[in-house]
């Protein structure tokens, strides 16, 4: 078995008191890769190495995830807002010497990339979001199907410490449940990746941090998103939306059309996958991100 990330350096960067972990390799223009729940930068194991021939690749852990710090939450959930998470990653890229960069985010990482492109337009050259529509749009379009498929949104944002107690009682079972029924045949999450994710969730502080992430999404993030809408702020960088053709997002939304309400220059591609696009369709993901980050037509 090929061991992922063997040619990557591990970097631990203090950004305003929060240490952010990243895997770094390659040369050329910089691309920042952000993961989703319940994963870490390890989810890019099939994609990141293939990008290093064209780009300086930075695969980072969001605060509270992987090997990044997991600070205690605050009463208003600002600590785990997309705004705070985006600022972490911008600070990381500054410390690594990248003032302008492309960013690609899957799931939670896509939501951080969305906020980053709004809060730091001078830093983000291009943004790719994988298998999401905007958080505000999701919450304003809740129906039975959404609540059933995305039940974890409503479970994880319950007050401390109900979800924490239930998850820490069986982290292996909880992590496995996040993949069961959300992947397309024949791909199944590999044992090394599953252990990577479960290992982080054996730490109660990380379980609490990831719950705080969802509490922020259902509260302060919506405040920020509505402020943007009221002010007619939209993403100005070119945006690529990629979704799984069999995922909930792919089956229930006109993804490109939705993003056109939030960004000025949108292209979209359906992948032959379910939710975990970079792991289920890594070759396509590499091709799409390479062409998009280069600014080539037809991404």
Which bin fits the share of residues in helices?
40-55%
Name given to the CATH homologous superfamily: Alpha/Beta hydrolase fold, catalytic domain
| Class derived from helix and strand content | alpha/beta
What is the distance, rounded to the nearest whole angstrom, between the alpha carbons of the first and last residues?
Answer: 31 Å
Question: What is the total tally of β strands?
Answer: 8
The CATH class turns out to be: Alpha Beta
Topology:
Layout: E1 9-15, E2 18-26, E3 30-34, H1 48-51, E4 56-60, H2 82-95, E5 101-106, H3 108-119, E6 124-130, H4 135-139, H5 144-149, H6 151-156, H7 162-169, H8 171-179, H9 191-201, H10 204-217, H11 220-230, E7 239-244, H12 248-252, H13 255-260, E8 266-271, H14 277-280, H15 282-294
Parallel strand pairs: 3-4, 3-5, 5-6, 6-7, 7-8
Antiparallel strand pairs: 1-2, 2-4
Helix pairs in contact: 2-3, 7-10, 8-9
Structure description:
It is a single chain. The chain has 299 residues and is α/β, with parallel strands linked by helices. It has one domain: Alpha/Beta hydrolase fold, catalytic domain (Rossmann fold), CATH 3.40.50.1820. 43% of the residues lie in helices and 17% in strands. The protein is globular, with a radius of gyration of 17 Å. The model has no long low-confidence stretch (mean pLDDT 96).
């Amino acid at each position: 078995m090929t061991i992922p990330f063997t040619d990557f350096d591990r970097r631990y960067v203090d950004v305003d008191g929060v240490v952010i972990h990243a895997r770094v390799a390659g040369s050329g223009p910089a691309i920042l890769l952000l993961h989703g729940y319940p994963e870490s930068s390890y989810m890019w194991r099939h994609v990141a190495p293939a990008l290093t021939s064209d780009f300086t690749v930075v695969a980072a852990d969001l605060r509270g995830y992987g090997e990044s710090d997991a600070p205690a939450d605050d009463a208003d959930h600002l600590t785990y807002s997309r705004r705070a998470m985006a600022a972490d990653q911008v600070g990381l890229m500054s410390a690594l010497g990248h003032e302008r960069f492309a960013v690609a985010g899957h799931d939670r990482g896509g939501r951080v990339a969305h906020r980053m492109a709004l809060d730091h337009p001078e830093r983000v050259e291009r943004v790719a979001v994988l298998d999401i529509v905007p958080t505000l749009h999701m919450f304003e379009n809740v129906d039975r199907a959404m609540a059933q498929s995305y039940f974890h949104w409503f479970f994880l944002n319950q007050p401390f410490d109900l979800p924490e107690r239930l998850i820490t009682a069986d982290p292996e079972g909880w992590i496995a449940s996040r993949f069961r029924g959300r992947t397309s045949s024949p791909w199944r999450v590999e044992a090394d990746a599953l252990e990577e994710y479960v290992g982080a969730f054996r730490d109660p502080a990380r379980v609490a941090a990831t719950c705080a992430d969802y509490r922020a999404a259902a509260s302060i993030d919506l405040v920020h998103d509505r402020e943007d809408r009221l002010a007619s702020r939209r993403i100005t960088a070119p945006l690529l939306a990629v979704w799984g053709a069999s995922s909930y997002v792919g089956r229930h939304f006109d993804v490109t059309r939705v993003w056109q309400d939030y960004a000025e220059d949108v292209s979209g591609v359906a992948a032959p996958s379910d939710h975990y696009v970079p792991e289920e369709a890594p070759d396509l993901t590499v091709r799409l991100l390479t062409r998009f980050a280069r600014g080539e037509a037809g991404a």
